[in-house]
Amino acid sequence: MPTPDERSTADRIREQRKRARLSQRELSARIPYSYSLLNQVECGARVATADFTAAVAAALGIDITTLTGPPHVTEMQHGLLASLVRPIRESLALYDLAPDGNMPARPTDKLVHEADRLCQEVRATHLRKAARALPGVINDLTLAAHTVPTTEAWRALASTYRTAHDIAIKLGFPDLAIVALDRMGWAAEHASDPCLAAIRQYRRALGHAEAEQCLGRRLVAAGQELVADQTTREGLAVAGQLHLGASAVAARAGDTNAVEQHIAAARELADRVGGEAREVHWLSFGQMNVTLHEMGAAIAMRQFDDALRQARAVRLPPATLTSRRARFLVDRAVVEMETGHLDASLRHLVAARRAAPEQTRYHPRTRETVTGLLHTSRRTSDPLANMATWIGL
């Protein structure tokens, strides 16, 4: 008899549905997915995506981990990652302690440079390297902000909290990501920076699944209020990014009209910003960012033919950030698989692994796609078997 950790998400969905005394048709009526898809998921013919699983968990009134089981890595991998992020947890926990008389070991300008460097490390998908260095920078900047409180120090501290959030998300620690965003809001308030506060609301909105769409929309709206009067390049870029966040929230709700409106608004703002705004609070807002979000919205709404057409038209510039390139390749793999192009799907997963192994290995869509390929391929090729072993299947 399989242990709980050995059972699949599909098995858990079927088990929890029966515990709730619901038929497949009754459960499908409570989620934004069809009876046919639910039936295929429970039979193992289709993959239970992250959004689908979140919707089922919300409909059944249970925690999503009841359905997902262990994290999207093996238990050993998760233990190693937990040890890696533990010092980050500790540095976030000590945010409000008064200084003990010590002065920062490094001057503020050096710490600002270090905060920017760590952001670049995450963009380059050097996640472990950034995670190891981050706690020391957070601790020094916390001390600097308390002892010599300047806007520069508070902004840099907010930057490190955003980096902590990104690392936590990419390595599969959503609880830590929530704490990091709370700390980011606290630092943004001390910096009196409405753009930083707005970005925090944008990131919070993206953390909510289909069952929490009203909350996601409220968070985006709160961010938009913060930058409503901003006319600088910084303010326009943040406003544009908030529209992209709103498009993602709308896509999860299946609101095609809202998606189109927010994408159009973001494109207009990208024209006004001119070029990619990489210098604006780690956003890299621009026309390519809008295009990738439009494709992401199509994936979320399961409009895979549209998503495939968009993906095949994308030509990423050579200077594209590694993290963005790898994410695009994984998304491309998803739409290729969902439209029946299995070989192309695997090629893009391999390319994503080559570009950013750490990010790709722990991305939930990588696991979903590999699982789907294993279910639908007539035979398991050596590259596919190798990929499955690499992610811990």
TrEMBL record:
SUPFAM superfamilies (UniProt xref): lambda repressor-like DNA-binding domains
Coiled-coil blocks: none
Pfam families recorded: HTH_31
SMART domains: HTH_XRE
CDD domains hit by this protein: HTH_XRE
Limits of the HTH cro/C1-type domain: 13-67
Chain spans, region Disordered: 1-21
InterPro entries assigned: Cro/C1-type_HTH (IPR001387), Lambda_DNA-bd_dom_sf (IPR010982)
Chain intervals with Basic and acidic residues compositional bias: 1-14
Identification of the protein by name: Multiprotein-bridging factor 1 family protein
